[in-house]
Design brief:
This protein is an all-alpha fold and 233 residues long. It contains 8 helices and no strands. The termini are far apart.
Length: 233
């Protein structure tokens, strides 16, 4: 049994070389549950959208490379949203000064429990927003460039598509503002209000799923409105 446990610890360490996931599990025993629910919601919703859009043209299986690219970006985005807003238990506090020290002192999200000042909570909202903006920009640059490249390789007309830079900037803006605020509010609800409800594990999971599914659906609707407002659609 000890040998098996040691084997799995080595596997996990190889998958998590920085210890970031381990530290989040130590700080929040719901971390893996929330991560799995968020990935399941995002992947199922994205796959349903891909099927609806492409099967209507009889192109789903012909465009599996597009589907794989979109799904990979969905997984990266969902993982990042959960990971960056989860509290982490620091085994060893690294020496820091100046800006780095101030960042380390920020809460995981602006409604996180703890003796944080108003400035630190505002800083968490702004800092995580900047991180999400960067993640959104980078993901969209990769995803949109891949899509345009694949379409051109098939000889398709891409003139009606939004420009890569314009689309990426707006996706970064959307993640930095809408996704950041919505997910911070969801994390605040889970950290402060959900524990007050008299729920067993199954009910707790169901409520978490419902709130996060609603947040994901709302995000999809808000992105459509955002894209139209800025002229991408």
């Amino acid at each position: 049994a000890e040998m098996q446990a040691g084997f799995f610890r080595k596997i996990f360490a190889a998958m998590d070389p920085t210890g970031g996931i381990r530290n989040r599990i130590m700080a929040n025993d719901r971390f893996m549950l929330v991560m799995m629910l968020e990935l399941a919601i995002g992947c199922v919703s994205k796959m349903a959208a891909e099927w609806r859009e492409r099967s209507s043209r009889g192109a789903f299986f012909k465009e599996l490379d597009f589907v794989a690219s979109d799904m990979a970006l969905e997984i990266i985005g969902d993982f990042t949203l959960v990971y960056l807003l989860s509290p982490a238990s620091a085994i060893r506090a690294p020496a820091a000064a100046g800006v780095s020290k101030a960042i380390q002192a920020l809460p995981a999200h602006f409604l996180a429990p703890g003796a944080f000042t108003a400035a630190q909570r505002a800083g968490a909202l702004a800092y995580k927003g900047a991180l999400f903006w960067l993640v959104g920009l980078t993901a969209s640059l990769i995803g949109h460039t891949s899509t345009v490249t694949l379409m051109k390789a098939r000889g398709a007309d891409t003139s009606a598509m939004a420009g890569v830079l314009d689309n990426s900037l707006q996706w970064g803006n959307f993640m930095g503002v809408s996704s950041n605020l919505r997910y911070q509010l969801v994390n605040g609800w889970e950290a402060r209000l959900l524990p007050l409800l008299p729920l067993n594990k199954a009910a707790d999971t169901a409520v978490t799923f419902g709130v996060r599914f609603g947040n994901s659906y709302l995000g999809g609707e808000m992105w459509i409105a955002w894209a139209r407002a800025v002229g991408l659609q």
